[in-house]
Amino acid sequence: MHFRKATFREIPEIKKLWKEVFGDANDYISRFITHFGIENCYICEINNAVVAMAFAIPTNLKSPSNFEGVPVVTEQSRSEGRGSLSKIIYIYACATHPDFQSQGIMKMLIETVYNEACKENYAGIFLQAAHQPLIRYYQELGFEAFFFRDHSFYYNHKEHEEATKYTKSDKGINPIAVSSELCENPLRPLRLNIISPENYYQKRRQKLKNHCFVNWNEDFFRFLNESGTQFCEYKNTIFSFKTHINTIIVDELLGETPHEQIADLLFEKLPDFEVVHIRSMGNEFCCGQIKWCCLQTKNHPKCGWLGFAME
After folding, report:
1. Which distant-in-sequence residues (6+ apart) come within 8 Å of 298 by Cβ?
2. pLDDT at 27 over 70
3. Same structural domain for residues 278 and 164?
4. What predicted TM-score, i.e. pTM, was given to this entire model?
5. Distance (Å, rounded) from C-alpha 283 to C-alpha 96?
């Protein structure tokens, strides 16, 4: 059993394993590997065959205040009083071949990534559990809940003047009737302004300047855009959306515009969809866990905003 970084010669095996475990389209798999680099993939080999993989994507954690013990990307950000910008690793596409599951291989692979991250002075590694039961599993590996959000669901009742909002947390789903503008004026012009990934990146940094958040770079947003995510601006609010089956998914919403107005605008733009699912800042639902490299870290933030992950 051997753990190491992948090379170009393993790309066919990695694509095959990815397809078998996750079932994603070949185009998406190829685009992801091309965009983020095979050099950021860690693998486990047994008898010269790839039996497990995990991508380790470098990014930054931006905090409005400095905290001790975590390496800072640039001294300029600290000296100018703009908080800390710490290197961090995002773990994605953790996959083990079905014939080798339940043998502790992924645990050892993640530990390999973690040890390498610490050697290279990263603040830590973080990931997003694909399913709620996995949160407990990652806790046993030393990860702690760090990224949180709330969920709101809006339904497109085309024949009613009132939409129904559902808020979802780890405690269940609670229906709440809310006022909606869905039928106020069906002929009004669309007010959404589609913006570029680069423009969204800049506006997002400004919106989150007083928060601890994952500071994805412009290339990350370009990849999301190529994969179907749209970036929008409405009044003083920015947000993203993508579609899945009959649902419009808002991965991030930053601003003061009421959620039901955003849902209204999206139903107006895409009237054939039945549901708008808005993921927003909150503290009810854990959407990401982190494992700090520096155990002696002091005064680090207790929670942060993830916003986007390739879930």
Report:
1. 67, 68, 69
2. yes
3. yes
4. 0.84
5. 31
